[in-house]
Amino acid sequence: LAKTTQPISMDSYEGQEVNITCSHNNIATNDYITWYQQFPSQGPRFIIQGYKTKVTNEVASLFIPADRKSSTLSLPRVSLSDTAVYYCLVVPDRGSTLGRLYFGRGTQLTVWP
Amino acid sequence: ETGVTQTPRHLVMGMTNKKSLKCEQHLGHNAMYWYKQSAKKPLELMFVYSLEERVENNSVPSRFSPECPNSSHLFLHLHTLQPEDSALYLCASSSQGREETQYFGPGTRLLVL
């Protein structure tokens, strides 16, 4: 499975847009990019998934360039409640990944008033 | 609410005790997972159960014993734990073949004295 690299931490202020970039140079043709969010003392929560170009939902947007070697999670107008750890994962579309999903350390986003 | 419940939410036990953690999912999923999350460390996958296979992390000590009586319930039996086993234990479920979209429970915060 493709390894990912993302910043350990980021800081922002309320109302700003936050972009967290993840590198996945070894991504395979049929891999999807998935992002999770984890609040303190809670389990991670799936927030968005994409294959190419742009995906948007009520929580975030995911931008994936044509070469797919990186992706950017965009959080519009963050609030204090967006303070969390954000994980970038790369997973195959087909076949068994059972037991091989790797969350890594993620990016600790801290939003300040 | 993610559809995955865990009990108890908090547990304090001595090193000679035997206890069990319980997880139940109401999502119709057929794969369930146990993770361990220690302070400042990445999520560590411990065990996975699905319809067709069980996957174990070979580094998990035998003092942790999983049980999956059906697709909706998952247990983690604990015996003669060590203080370093203190951590947040998370249960998750997914549809088989859709491991990238896991739904996590709130976790059990375990303290071993």
Strand content of chain B: over 45%
What global shape of chain B is seen?
globular
Q: Largest interface, per-chain counts?
A: A-B, 22 and 27 residues
**What are the secondary-structure elements of chain B, in order, as H or E?**
EEEEEEEEEEE
Please provide the ordered H/E string of secondary-structure elements of chain A: EEEEEEEEE
> What class do helices, strands and sheet pairing of chain B give?
mainly beta
What is this structure, in a nutshell?
The complex is a heterodimer of chains A (113) and B (113). Chain A contains no helices and 9 strands. Chain A has 113 residues and is mainly beta.
Structure explained in plain terms:
The complex is a heterodimer of chains A (113) and B (113). Chain A has strands spanning 9-13, 18-23, 31-38, 45-50, 53-56, 61-64, 70-75, 84-92, 107-112. The radius of gyration of chain A is 14 Å and the shape is globular. Chain A is an all-beta fold and 113 residues long. Chain A starts with 8 loop residues before the first strand and ends with a strand. In chain B, strands 2, 4, 5, 6, 9, 10 and 11 form a 7-stranded mixed β-sheet that branches. Chain B is mostly beta strands and 113 residues long. The relative contact order of chain B is 0.34. Helices cover 0% and strands 55% of the residues of chain B. Chain B contains no helices and 11 strands. Classes of the chains: A mainly beta (113), B mainly beta (113). The A-B interface holds A 32, 34, 41-46, 49, 89, 91, 94, 96-99, 101-106 and B 2, 4, 31, 41-43, 45, 48, 50, 53, 55, 57, 88, 90-92, 97, 99-107, 109.
Search tags:
heterodimer; A: 113 residues; mainly beta; five-stranded mixed sheet; four-stranded antiparallel sheet; 0% helix; 48% strand; B: 113 residues
